Amino acid sequence: xxxxACAPQLKCTNFQLYLCKTYSMACISDLLHQPSIELVPLxxxxxxxxxxxxxVTEHLDPTPFLEGGELVLTTSCGNPSSPGAWAEYVSxxxxxxxxxxxxxxxxxQRKVPRALLAAxxxxxxxxxxxxxxxxxxxxxxxxxxxxxxxxEAEERLLGRAQQDLIGAACSSTPIKSIxxxxxxxxxxxxxxxxxxxxxxSPPTASFQADELLAAxxxxxxxxxxxxTPLQTLIVLPAGSLHASSTFLVVKAAHALPQWTRKAISTAxxxxxxxxxxxxxxxxxRLALSRRSLELFLAGDPHTAREIYALAYPHSKPLDSKLxxxxxxxxxxxxxxxxxxxxxxxxxxxxxxxxxLHILISPSALPLLLSxxxxxxxxxxxxxxxxxxxxxxSLATAEIALKKATAKRPQVSWEExxxxxxxxxxxxxxAVCWAQDFLDPLRSQPxxxxxxxxxxxxxxxxAQVSQETSLHRNTxxxxxxxxxxxxxxNLDDPAARVQVWFSLRALE
Length: 507
Known about the structure:
This protein is of the alpha+beta class.
């Protein structure tokens, strides 16, 4: 009897075989549907079982001579002496994971023993009857032909896959293109990871990041495969990126033929090359980015724009007005911020031992500052200036940076310049000077209040009188007293500036 489960497995004739889901390795169903040998499936629960080779044996225990995946040909099974011995024989074959047992009938045995058929059914082992007119040599030759066809098909598959992977590596985004193409080839989810995060993966990937990262940690720094009935998970070292070891992870919901594993190895080598090239390009871009900023600061915006276009060829031109952002922090924090800015913005940057300077369009400032606030740094935004005046924006950023504190890590020139010349003086120095200047008034706070009102009213006695509820003559008398104590003349604009500065410093 021929079971429906043994329907033929179609072969794909398209050269792009890896895109065809009907492609399969040489398997039991291929033999069952060869009319020249007329095999009869007696029990065939797994017709898609692949065949590695043919083994002809009459041993009662042939397992020492088997490796797994063989089609076992026999005429006696070693002549088991009891029904229980037939079950033991089948169990031994199943333990070796053979593809099928083919029993030859003839004058020596007119039909397959019932005990053998029962044992095969119990163990879910493929059992085939070989008719008397079919000799084992013909079966062996046919299997050899099928295996040769399979090997040639795999060579074609691998060659085409390698060509496509190399083509992907030549694209403008080689890492993502290689992963996408590899996923198409092996019909699996692919990702490039470090031990801590996913670096890149195709947009169609549906894996759980935690599962992939856990697999990477289990493998250490060597290649590994985890194969279960439900999935195949392969981890392959793939070089390094930004001083971190990287790994190619492939997760498939099916077994992977040998040629696909070679394609995965090819992808791993191409990813190593792509990452090395990317690091060299990144180093070149950083050098060009730094040079562009330095030329802007030197007052040469024309050359600076040319260098910027080389560093960021796919970005739009810089705005006519630009702002310098100055960042202060530890070297480690500055390097992390630098890397994040480079990955997120097409902005000229310069990293020194204790500073990171970023040149950016004012419209992009909110997004940049939102990226920077996650780091343990202090940030100051300079005033927007024309491209030829970028050095002035840097100067204002550095002045504003002096006002940044742990409680107020982000400041801008616009905020601090509201204090005018106060922004130019160190806060501690200003407070010290103001306390010394106003010390003669320490025991007479009313005089300090009247001075403050006088400066705020721009010297208008009537307005001071109204604000303090004192008679005008009293106000004049108090102001004369304050002038004597401070040794100043309030008719002198410089003296008024001194009073204003000291009062603002102590606010």
